[in-house]
Design brief:
With 148 residues, the protein is mainly α. It has one domain (5-144). Helices cover 75% and strands 7% of the residues.
């Protein structure tokens, strides 16, 4: 019997963002509609909601296929993912006119200006968060599904 380890790896990787992203979208829509924040944040979440779970699943499949040669721990493998997602997201946002880079800050939706001094520690926090989520949550799901 074929146990389909890559299908299970894909589903384990896609599980977390599939749960979290709709909750984030709900929070952002409530903030936009109830609190009347004039920034169309939900427009910036639709594309990641479609792409991020797929990428997490593929990333977990890549870990399963490359682990025998690289011996890279799952947490560290997961922490590499934001290093690919952030530049790709910035490229897409810039090409769609959602994000503009200035000399000292980035501007989202021509309304929200974020200084680079704040972006750097947030990115480091994202790396740490990805490491912990991949090490403990995705690793747990991998073990439950028998692919770890």
């Amino acid at each position: 019997m074929n146990t389909h380890p890559y299908l299970r790896a894909y589903l384990a990787g896609a599980f977390i963002p599939t749960l979290i992203l709709p909750l984030l979208l709900t929070v952002f829509i409530v903030v936009r509609l109830v609190l009347k924040v004039p920034v169309p944040i939900e427009q910036g979440l639709i594309f990641p909601m479609a792409v991020v779970p797929v990428l997490w699943g593929l990333w977990n499949m890549l870990h399963l296929s490359s682990h025998t040669t690289t011996h890279l721990p799952l947490g560290l493998h997961g922490a590499i993912l934001p290093l690919l997602l952030a530049p790709a997201g910035a490229l897409v946002a810039t090409s769609l006119g959602v994000l503009q880079f200035g000399t000292s800050s980035a501007t989202w939706f021509q309304a929200c200006e974020v200084p680079y001094a704040l972006i750097a520690p947030c990115f480091v926090g994202a790396l740490i968060g990805y490491y912990l989520v991949w090490k403990y949550i995705v690793g747990f799901i991998d073990r439950v599904l028998g692919i770890a």
